[in-house]
Each structure stands twice: as structure tokens, then as C-alpha cells.
Amino acid sequence: MKYLIIIILILNTTGLSAQTENRYIAEGNDAYKLQQFGKAAESYRQALRENPDNTTAIFNLGNALYKNKQYEEALKTYESLQDKTDDKILQSQAIYNKGVIFSQQKKLEESIDAYKQVLRINPADSMGRDNLQRALNEKQKQDQQQQQQNQQNDNNNRPPPKNKLNQQQVEQLLKALEEQEKKLQEKVNKKPPVPGQPDKDW
To answer: CATH number, domain at 99?
Structure first.
């Protein structure tokens, strides 16, 4: 299953503080491109020290954390971004990336919910729709496997059928069978010779 994380490049802002933030974000983006995700995360954090509300730095920090396999911290970062911006597209991208993390962790219910949220915000999001379909297919497969496993466990845990006859009944049944066999033997032994067949005389 292939999912794609979205990264935002620098937004143009003005002012000295903004220039410092942008420099840190640019350094983070360069490190990110070189797959130095720990270094990228540190650069984004430096940008956030300059301006804790810089949504680009928050978003890209989440991505660097995700790539560095720090999934829980990445999720918290995306959630904090949702509280700091009214930009619906940016919110949908953060939710989309949360969906990607949930898919990677095989938390398919949460993943499905995230992709549905993305499509509520931006119904034209084709990646969100594609990943929703993948997650639904994966969930269906997982449910079928779980159902088969449960059936197998039920069959394995089912006690063998109990013998409904007690010891005394078994002995009575055996005696009755022996009696029947004895009577049958007696009948066979007493059977008269077939007429028209002469006794052998030699």
C-alpha cells in the first residue's frame, strides 16, 4: 500500500523575524530532501522558536517526524496545526497525513475516519479518495481474515461431542448385541438342509 506525505515549501513573508523563520524552514526543507529527517525536524523547531504559530514550520515538522518514524509525535504536531489555522486546505492536508500514519500503523478505522474528514473539507481531493478506498479495501480484507480466524478458533475450542450413554447403558447395549449375535448363530446352526440335495455318501 503506497501513501504520499505532502510537504509545504516556504511561504513568502516579510520582516526580520520572518526572514529568520524562512531561513530555518529552507534549511529544514534542504535536509528533508536529503532524507536527513532528524536535522530537518530540528530546523523546523528553530523556526517555531522564532514564531510558534508558523503553520508551514508546524506542518513540515510533522512530516519530518513521520519520516523519522516518530509517529505519535507527528500526529500531535498535525493536531496542533489544526488548532492554529483556519486554512481549510492546510487542515485537510494535515488530516490527510494523519490518515497516512494511521494506515502505516494498521489503525484502519482511524485512517478511514481521517480520509473521510479530508473529503468533507475538500471533496475534490483525489489522493484522499484513493487512500480512503485503499483503507476500506484493507479493512474489508482484515475483517474477512479475522472472521476466518474466529471460525477456526471456535472449531478448535469446541469440545468433542460427549458420549450420551453412561457406563450402565453401554454394558446393556453390549449384552443386547451379544444376545442378538448368539440367536443369529443358533438360527444358522439349526437351519435344515436344502431339499433336493442328497446327503453325500462316500
So the answer is: 1.25.40.10
**In terms of residue numbers, what domain contains 115?**
86-145
Q: What are phi and psi of 14, to 5 degrees?
A: -120, 170
Query: Would you state the pLDDT for residue 3?
Result: 55
Contact yes or no for 72/39 (Cβ under 8 A): no
What is the pTM (predicted TM-score) of this model? 0.66
Residue 104 shares a structural domain with residue 64 = no
Give me the torsion for CA of 12, 13, 18, 19, rounded to 10°: 50
In-domain check, residue 128: yes
Length of the chain: 202
Q: Kindly give the parts of the chain with pLDDT less than 70.
A: 1-17, 158-165, 188, 191-202
Q: How is 148-195 classified by DSSP, letter by letter?
A: HHHHHHHHHHSPPPPP-S-HHHHHHHHHHHHHHHHHHHHHHHHPPPPT
Residue 135 lies in a domain: yes
Report the alpha-carbon angle 89-97-69, nearest 5: 150
Task: Give the phi and the psi of residue 23 in degrees, each rounded to 5.
Answer: -65, -45
Q: What is the pLDDT of residue 18?
A: 76
